[in-house]
Every structure is written in C-alpha cells, then in structure tokens.
Amino acid sequence: MGWLVLVVVGAVLWWWSLSIALRAYRRERMPLWATPTKAPGRAVLLRAAGSAAAVFGMGMASPSLAVSAPVAAIIAMVTLTVLLLAPYLAAIAIHNRRVRSPE
After folding, report:
1. Per-residue pLDDT tens for 30-85?
2. Count of domains observed in the chain
3. Backbone angle region of 18, left / alpha / beta, with phi > 0 → left and psi within -120 to 50 → alpha
4. Which of 51, 74, 87, 93 is deepest in the core (most CB within 10 A)?
5. Could you tell me if residue 103 is inside a domain?
C-alpha cells in the first residue's frame, strides 16, 4: 500500500508539470508528439520526477497484487497509461482546440 502513495505523488507531479507547460503556451498551440520548445525547466524536471516516481512506485507495488507476474505487468502498464498518458493527450488536445490555429 505504501508504494501506491509514490504512484499518486508521481501523478501529481506529472499533472503539475503539464499545467506549467500549458501556461507557457497560453496563446499558442502546444506540440502533441514533439518536445515543447518553450517548456520551462521546472516543467521538464517535474515531468521527469513524476514519471520516475509513478513507474517506480507501480513497479514496487505490482508484486503485492495476488496475480502472476505477466498479469501484474499488464495491470501496471494500464494503470500508468490511465494515470499519465491518456489524460496528458486529452489535456493538450483540449488546449489546442481552445487556441485558434494559425491560418
């Protein structure tokens, strides 16, 4: 149970980094599949720390699941995708939709 706290802390750091990066791109589109050029250093640091904490916490918590190793790995992958990747893509897509594209 203690390792899941690390997963939650990692997700919070990840989301905090996303909010900082989106504020840096307040009036322009943020690249979805490329590295943002204007991302503040603290956003990059928070994203790295958050993803490391979430992956490490999930990796350490997965043996406590009463399932086989392959199933635990799949659960960990799905959990991290739901916590980090899918909301990240949705937040950037919503931001880019709100910002008028250059014509």
Report:
1. 888 887 788 889 998 999 999 999 989 888 888 887 888 888 888 888 988 888 88
2. 1
3. alpha
4. 51
5. no
